[in-house]
Amino acid sequence: MNENIIKQFKKGVLDIVILKLLSQQEMYGYELVSELNRRGESLNIKEGTLYPILYRLEDEGLVETRWEQAASRSKPKKYYKVTEKGIEAMTEAYSQWKAIARDITNIMEGTP
Amino acid sequence: MNENIIKQFKKGVLDIVILKLLSQQEMYGYELVSELNRRGESLNIKEGTLYPILYRLEDEGLVETRWEQAASRSKPKKYYKVTEKGIEAMTEAYSQWKAIARDITNIMEGTP
DNA sequence: ACCATATACTTTGTATAACAAAGTATATGG
DNA sequence: CCATATACTTTGTTATACAAAGTATATGGT
Fold it and tell me: How many domains does chain B have?
């Protein structure tokens, strides 16, 4: 139980925070990485972590993509936004997470 | 992202709640299962989940075991208690979890 | 006494996720 | 011109929760 415990703690929760950020603003992958790193130091992720998550969310129909070319002859970027289904999945999953977080807090903090 | 998301949310956190419960009271495995199921519905686990965790925690020196025979000719039970090292690991890991939980809450609840 | 159920522990195999590490390609600033 | 940043992708590794099954003893009800 070293620092790789952090890797375990992140499992599953990255999905919901990514969906949340994408529900507030359409973003492309690389942008999401920096946004996540800015928003919470403990949720830092690398590209090799984010992109597979995005592909999975897309396969599940929770996000939609769109290639956009900023300027002509510039390299297009792949923009992600959340679908209706994605909002529902995120809401449901977050509710589950809150229940677990509450139980953990109860056990760790008090009521022995 | 179905109900198996719950399985992901549990990753890592079971360690810390198990260590916490064992720090409050020495227990044997089967007892821990029912205690956990009683304490937080969302943290329900089966024996096949708990025992491997206990073996791992023991390998890491975070818990110690002791076989105790309740009555003569009764089947002995394997009691677990936390070591000093276990307390430290739990405290550290819980602190990490709180940091992540805080970041998640910030992203999910507010400050857009 | 019998037997279904509960207790208690163990093992095997599976699915999934985060990550490291590397690669590809374009854009940009000094 | 070229090192660095941007942007996306892929492969292989490791760790964990879980289902499912098995073993063995204990116990309560009829």
Answer: 1
Query: Which of B:23-62 have CB within 8 Å of A?
Result: 24, 39-43, 57, 60, 62
Which residue in B1, B20, B100 is closest to A42 by CB distance? B100
Question: Which pLDDT tens digit goes with each residue over A77-97?
Answer: 999 999 999 999 999 999 999
Domain assignment present for A68: yes
Query: Domain span at residue B79?
Result: 10-109
For residue A39, what pLDDT is reported? 87
Name residue A80's beta-bridge partners. A27, A65
Touching B: A residues 70-99, CB under 8 Å: 89, 93-94, 96-97, 99
Stated length of chain B = 112
